[in-house]
Hints:
Elements: E1 5-9, H1 15-24, E2 28-32, H2 38-46, E3 49-50, H3 54-58, E4 63-66, H4 71-81, E5 90-93, H5 99-110, E6 115-118, E7 121-122, H6 124-130, E8 133-138, H7 141-154, E9 155-162, H8 166-195, H9 199-207, H10 214-218, H11 220-225, H12 235-251, H13 257-273, H14 282-290
Parallel strand pairs: 1-2, 1-4, 2-3, 4-5, 5-6, 8-9
Antiparallel strand pairs: 7-8
Amino acid sequence: MAIRRIGFIGIGRMGWPMARRLLEAGFAVTVQDAVPGRGADFVRQHGGVAAPEAAAAAAEADAVITMLPTSREVADVVAAIRPVLRSGAVVIEMSSGEPSATRRIAQDLAAQGVGLVDAPVSGGVARAETGQLAIMTGGDPALLERVGPALGAMGTTMTRCGDVGAGQAMKALNNLVSAAGFLVSVEALLIGSRFGLDPAVMVDVLNASTGMNNSTQKKLKQFVLSRGFDSGFGLDLMVKDLSIALQVGRETATPTPLAAQTRELWAAAASLLGPGQDHTAAARFAEALAAAELASPQVERKG
């Protein structure tokens, strides 16, 4: 059965452009969000239908996409929509959730003939806007083939990582590597700055050398040296993803000394800086430890 009607639950900073890309690809999309009025705002700007509650968004849908903060919200939404899900429908869980929790939800849904695949994303708001997300998937290959056109409207890279939950495990581990790279890159800039090096020049050298990573390419100049700290991905969400990575480590009995230290540093940054911070603001935590602030005459400050 081809998927044409999609209920999209959770149109926050990432979900909004993802739902818009589905509409532009010709899918019939009904949106719903916990924030009052957000669905109506979306419809005024882009079209589609706004539902007052999750069950209304899921009714008659071929597929339901969940893009929510944590697995707890996902479980609550699935409990609310189960009575209206038709046999043969598919839940596409695109949140950065807990693999073990997602597997439990999938088992419950299977009992009523509803499939579930997990498909978390990487690329941030900018790539969500352009439909160029990297999507990591887990689930039955036949189900993933069915939802492939919908995923293709939102991303350019779809990689099946294994069974249900595998995509979310991969997403958490990807963010673990990214988070460690960010912190060590900021520390390197602080060391070099005290030595007398221009941090912007350091970034250029790193990007031409073996120290290159996602942070040197896309974060240090753009969000740290500019003092914008506005990449669009929250610090609290990074800590959550790192906690999931450590949970996967515990469940697989894998020693995680570096991962644990990385998570503790990010959690300390979140505690120091307070709620509502962009994840790139974690650089301020490293600056506080060094009693120094990164700056470069080559990078214009925002604001």
